[in-house]
Amino acid sequence: MDCLRDWPEPVVRVQSLSDSGATTIPDRYVKPPSERASVDPGDMVGIPVVDLAMLTDDVANCEATVTAIADACRHWGFFQAVNHGVSPGLMRRAREVWRGFFHLPMEEKQRYANSPKTYEGYGSRLGIEKAAVLDWGDYFFLHFLPSCLMDHDKWPALPPALRETNDEYGAALTKLCRRLLRALSIGLRLDAACLPVAFDDEGVCMRVNFYPRCPQPELTLGLSAHSDPGGMTVLLVDDHVTGLQVRKNDSWITVQPVPDAFIVNVGDQIQVLSNAAYKSVEHRVMVNAAAERLSMAFFYNPKSDVPLGPLRELVTCDRPALYQAMTFDEYRLYIRKKGPRGKSQVNSLEAA
Ligand code: OGA
Ligand code: NI
């Protein structure tokens, strides 16, 4: 990973640009017209909402819920989960500590400045290509699991409640993801343990995104179109500020967040393991002139050094393996070098 030693250019915090009060954005953030955010006129339907109240640990006996989850993952790659068992109080506290972090003075945040080697810490770009067009957002990236990668000293020391709250949040979401992964297995008509066994030792990390107010939101994006490289993502967004758009055929659907819900989506690794039964769908983030937006993307990933390909049970004469096996460590180098590029990577894995 030597090529990932450092950023190719001095890092500019988007929050500083926003706070400067400039009325135009630097050219570096101006997207080509075809990539700019738009709200499609037909943007009325929403992604499915799935009630998880009846999803117990005994997922094999939760047929209706499993079917709803599996249908959403087959047709949309996305759903909003309600009654998911994580307390709204914890969700609110987690958002508040992270909002507190991004509102600290810049020199306090700079102590955690990240590099492309591990991406851990305070960052403002994804990808190391010189002169790339950048996204209008800052973020903080950290690990929960495996425990050898979890390091509290790399998490913000301020606000004072952040580390403890973040620990609690990580434990609650890991539990939720374990249950969802078992449900996804049943949804493929496999044993509940099938996907968890393929994941082996889970890798769990989080990217907290901060999208400052933008004076020319129509020219840029907070996060360019991408699919998530990992297993499954559980996203907590601001209840009142929209921004996330999900690709449906040729249009972009703006997600209208349901209060206290999580937005769950399939990542590339589950698309590969399921031999494309479940879809890892492109999404992007619009920014806003009136309001800043915070989101917490919790990534539930497979063990990073075992080669993953389609599950053996899902490969038949009628449906041969669509992907070649690759480790997640190798796989995620692509987005870490090139930045968000739609679905080009998982598409390129398709077996010839
Ligand atoms: C991500 C992501 C969406 C959002 O971090 O991968 O897609 O709404 N975030 O911030
Ligand atoms: Ni994403």
UniProtKB/TrEMBL annotation:
One of its GO terms (biological process) is regulation of defense response to fungus. InterPro entries: DIOX_N (IPR026992), IPNS-like_FE2OG_OXY (IPR044861), IPNS-like_sf (IPR027443), Oxoglu/Fe-dep_dioxygenase_dom (IPR005123), Plant_2OG-oxidoreductases (IPR050295). Its cofactor is L-ascorbate; Fe(2+). Pfam families: 2OG-FeII_Oxy, DIOX_N. GO terms for molecular function: jasmonic acid hydrolase; metal ion binding; oxidoreductase activity. Residues 202-302 form the Fe2OG dioxygenase domain. Belongs to the iron/ascorbate-dependent oxidoreductase family. It catalyses: jasmonate + 2-oxoglutarate + O2 = (1R,2R)-12-hydroxyjasmonate + succinate + CO2. PROSITE patterns: FE2OG_OXY. Keywords: Iron, Jasmonic acid signaling pathway, Metal-binding, Oxidoreductase, Plant defense. It comes from the Eukaryota. This is 2OG-Fe(II) oxygenase superfamily.
